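Severity: low
Component: inverse-folding endpoint
Summary: output formatting inconsistent between runs
Steps to reproduce: submit the following structure tokens with default settings.
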């Protein structure tokens, strides 16, 4: 199986690195100093929970045309780059290539459908806390390294089984889903709350869940997202937010979100697709979302990054 990672940061670099370490043929599409470091020194993953790994030599390029057609292209670019990235990966996409987005949000596959037919698209969602700590090095916080994949029509497929097997062999907790839309929304519920609270409050998860007011706000962010999803026909249990509280309490106290890292670095934020996405979808579904609207408003000045202010 030939795999290409379109975006080789915290998510793409981590899962692509695990697959490459397991012996799979992986090409990394990256840019800037991260790309140059990968070309010179390979790719490293630092993890207190699972141990460090290093892949001394990796295939890394800025040009998808150098890679050519592959079996699976995994996208993990920021959401605002989705359509441009979809067009850029065209040299790697053949008639039978699976295009799998591990991006945040719930509209990512709708954007990809503007470029590729449905038969190319596979649904998926990733759970991992990672970021680029320095060029060529991905740092993982906590123990989570899980991916859920599945076909959008719910049918089993050979390509989904093969990817599932590859991920499992790489040490990742991999699952096959027969309702991948629900799986994507299940992550969205928690991610909206994690990203919105840690970024708006400029605090890691431990401090937020320890304070009664901020803890209640976190849970309400989840509840609103569940109500919106259910109104749009997603098969989420009515008490799904409450079910995720135990998961929240089991995470490392120092855990934060990639959006919080982006805020600290003055980068553009994904808030229009996360809390802002809940607000927009809530308006469409007729569901009030005041908590997510508050996060969206608080972060509005920072959404385009430091250079835009």
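Observed output (run 2 of 3):
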């Amino acid at each position: 199986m030939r795999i290409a990672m379109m975006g080789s940061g915290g998510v793409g670099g981590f899962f692509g690195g695990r697959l490459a370490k397991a012996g799979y043929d992986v090409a990394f599409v990256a840019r800037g100093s991260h790309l140059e470091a990968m070309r010179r020194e390979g790719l490293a993953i630092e993890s207190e929970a699972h141990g460090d790994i290093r892949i001394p030599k990796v295939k890394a390029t800025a040009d998808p045309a150098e890679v050519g057609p592959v079996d699976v292209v995994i996208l993990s670019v920021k959401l605002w780059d989705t359509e441009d990235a979809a067009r850029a990966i065209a040299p790697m996409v053949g008639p039978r290539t699976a295009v799998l987005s591990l991006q945040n949000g719930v509209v990512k596959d709708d954007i990809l459908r503007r470029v590729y037919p449905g038969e190319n698209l596979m649904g998926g969602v990733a759970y991992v806390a990672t970021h680029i700590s320095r060029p060529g090095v991905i740092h993982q916080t906590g123990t989570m390294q899980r991916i859920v994949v599945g076909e959008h029509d719910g049918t089993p497929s050979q390509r989904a089984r093969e990817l599932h097997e590859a991920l499992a062999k790489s040490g990742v907790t991999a699952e096959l889903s027969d309702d991948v839309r629900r799986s994507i929304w299940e992550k969205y519920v928690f991610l909206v709350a994690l990203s919105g609270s840690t970024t708006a409050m400029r605090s890691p998860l431990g401090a937020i869940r320890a304070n009664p007011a901020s803890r209640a706000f976190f849970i309400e962010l989840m509840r609103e997202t569940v109500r919106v999803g259910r109104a749009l026909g997603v098969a989420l249990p009515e008490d799904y937010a409450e079910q995720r509280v135990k998961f929240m309490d089991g995470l490392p106290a120092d855990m934060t979100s990639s959006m919080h890292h982006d805020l600290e670095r003055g980068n553009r934020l994904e808030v229009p697709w996360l809390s802002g996405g809940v607000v927009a979808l809530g308006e469409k579904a007729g569901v009030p979302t005041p908590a997510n609207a508050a996060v969206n408003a608080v972060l509005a000045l920072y959404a385009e990054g430091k250079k835009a202010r």
